[in-house]
Structures are given as C-alpha cells and as structure tokens.
Amino acid sequence: MTQNFAAIILAAGKGTRMKSALPKVLHEIAGRPMLGHALAVAAEAGASDVLLVTAPDQDAVRDYADKQDMTLTHAIQEQQLGTGDAVRVAFAATDKHERFVVMFGDTPLMRAEVLAALANNDADVTVLGFEPDDGAAYGRVKLDGDTPTAIFEYKDADEAACAITLCNGGAMGLSRAALEKYLPQLSNDNAQGEFYLPDFVALAHQDGATTALVMADPEDTLGVDSRAGQAKAEALMQARMRHKFLDAGVGMQDPDSVFLSFDTAIAADVTLEPHVKINGGVSIGPGTIIKAFTHLEGVTIGENAQIGPYARLRPGTNVGDEAKIGNFVETKKADIGKGAKVSHLSYIGDAELGMNVNIGAGTITCNYDGYNKHLTKIGDGAFVGSNSSLIAPVTIGKGAYLGSSSAVSKDVPDDALVVTRAPEREIKDWGRKFRARNEKKDK
Ligand code: UD1
Fold it and tell me: Which of 94, 99, 125, 374 is most deeply packed, by most CB within 10 A?
C-alpha cells in the first residue's frame, strides 16, 4: 500500500534543444504528450495530488494538464533557477501532505513501481540511483555503505566524484520536514549558479536526518531534451508495449515493425502482421488478424475479424465479429456489422452496415456535400454490386441488391433489385471499321 503523497512534477525547462514551437513536455511518446505519461504514472503510483511546476509562458502546458482527470495545483516558476528552486515554488503552493515525490515532466519511461518505492520509503530524502553505461553529465551519488551522503553535479565534480558509477536519476522522495528545513538552506554557489535539488542529500546527511537509495533501470530515468532523445524514448516505449502484448498472447511476426499507441487494447490470439500502425483509441478483439500495412485510429474491432492488408480504418469505425475489411479500403465513422465484407478498394464513411452485408469492389459512400456529412444505412444481408456510388442520405433495405455501377440516391426497399446503369449498346463491327478508317488516313 502506497503512503499518501503528492507528486511534484518539474516542467518549467525551456526545452530549446527540441527546436520547436511546442513546449517540450507536450511532445508525444506513443501518441501521448510526455506530461501525460508523467501524470498517468504519478496517478498509478498512488499520488493523491499533483503540483505542476511550469514557466510563466507555458499556458499550453497548463491547459493540457487541466484537461486531465487529476487533482492538480499549478506552481509557476518565474525564472528557471534550478531544480531546487522549482521544488521551492511547488512546496509553497501546498500546505497538505507529509510525503512528496519529485519527478520530471520529460522522463516518459518512468514506471509507477519506481515512484511508489520513492514514496513508500520513510527516509527524509530518498535518492533514485541508476548505473548507466555512460555516466555522461549525470550527478554522482556518494554512498557510505548503502546510505547516500551527497550528490555531486557533474559540472562541480572533481576527478574522484566523476569516477563514481552510481548516478542520480533525478526523481527524489522527500518528507515535509526535509522540505521545510532544507529548502531555505539551498545555495546557488556552484558551477551552474543554480539551486540544486540534489544538495538535499548532503544537507540531510550532515544534519543527521535519514537518507536512502532506491534503484531504477537507466530507461526509467531517460530524460528527453532533443528530437534524437525523443526518438530513443519512443523506440524504448514501443519495445516495452510490444513485449507486454507478446507476453499476453498477441502474435507478431516482426514486432519491430508494429507501432502501438499508449492506450492500445489488444486481446490474446490477435495477430498483427508486419508494418501495422496503430494510433490512439484502438481496441481489437480475440482471434482477429490485422494484415500488413494497415493503419488504425479510433477503431473498435470485434472477434475473429480480418483487416487489411493495406486498410485504413479511421476514427469512429466499429467492426463487428467475423467481418472482413480488405485491401485499399478506407472507413470513417462506420459501423460494419457482424460478418459483413468490404473486401476491396472502397470508401465507407458515415455509414451503418448490417450483418452479412457484402460491399463490392470500388464502392463509395458519397457522404459529403461540401457542407454536411450524410448517413448511408445498409440493411442486413444486402448486396452492393461493384463500383456503386451510394449518394447519402440513403438507405438500402435488408436483403436488397444493387447492380454493379449503380449510383443510388433514393432509398431501396427490402429485397428489391436496383440497377441505375445506362443501357448497354452493341454496334456490330465498329472496331474493324474504325481501324480501317484510320489506317487509310495514315497512308
Ligand atoms: C538533473 C540532476 C542530476 C541528475 C539528472 C538526471 C539537478 C541539479 N541535477 O540534472 O543530478 O543526474 O537530473 O536526469 O537536479 N526544471 C525546472 N525548473 C528549473 C530547472 C529545471 O522545472 O529551474 C525541470 C526541467 O524542465 C527538467 C527537470 O527539471 O524537466 C530537470 O532539469 P535539468 O536541468 O534538465 O536537470 P539535469 O541536467 O537533467
């Protein structure tokens, strides 16, 4: 059981290396802004409150956070004077909570169990340590036995400190008592002229307060501060999600070519063929096969359905059990009934297809008149011949047939046959005469 705690999320950094008009923490990993990942993991770890530190010009970040379903208090850091200063601003915004976990808004791979371990430790200051392959510019954690006694920021570290392989992961667990006592004691007399949160460790240790260490994987602490860093975090997140689904019984011939969204829901016994791209809001029922080069977004798919190859299912599509959507088919806002087939080269938008409807190749729902979208309804068991245009609003009755190449704008009763194609003419010997005429001209 996690102790009651507040998460302090630091997100006031400028993120200049992203070279983007979008604030860094709103850049996405697996289809969700990095800040969304931070908020979700804080909630999952059991945070009862979030204190979000942003810069004055980050309205977009605050707007995004306000739209999430969380108890959240804003703390605005006027100037970015360091992580210690950011925590000071956050702490000034609350008089509740006995325990706090400081975390960063730009570490999207942080796991809830790691934050929970920081929250659950009773020490005044709990350091998150990790052992990277390359220590790079991380702070170094000095230990006495298992107990952290100081953190040296890389720019301030002497040779002996640089040789330490245990690095500071950035996040930290803190008691209210530690915050009350050591925040006023932080100094910016250091290489970067910043107030360092890691200085809490030496202050607490020298004061006889308790310090502790929790270990994380390097992945958990990976901070994104460039596009390359974002791409690395995306790759790691995708790998994490693919493994989760493989373990849960989802088949993938080439997992590395399948891209998932943070909220993807896939049942056991689904097969994802290579080069499938799944965006937000997709759920797939058991036994369904998603064939190669298919693109899904905002789609619910039932059991034992077959989708693709090369299908594009857009938001608002619901595919029933055992239905089949074939190659070069685009759907949008469409209910496809149980056992229905849309096998080739069709656009089905703003449509309701009943059970076992068969849509011939090249069928188009003409759903848009330039101002409004209109509905096409097709009853159970109806058969739409190839190359038909369904000019919405229009209803095709149950068990009705449309002859190929029909352009239908009037409702079709149940079981009727409608054919709108022009009568066929035959002109005997036309080809022979045409060639003869033209060949004579050439001479
Ligand atoms: C920090 C740690 C370092 C650790 C590393 C792990 C400090 C001083 N150093 O360094 O020991 O190894 O994380 O990644 O804490 N932020 C604010 N306001 C500020 C400054 C920063 O909100 O005034 C936010 C940033 O937006 C960022 C986070 O705090 O999300 C970390 O700040 P950053 O300056 O990137 O610290 P690091 O150099 O990573």
Answer: 125
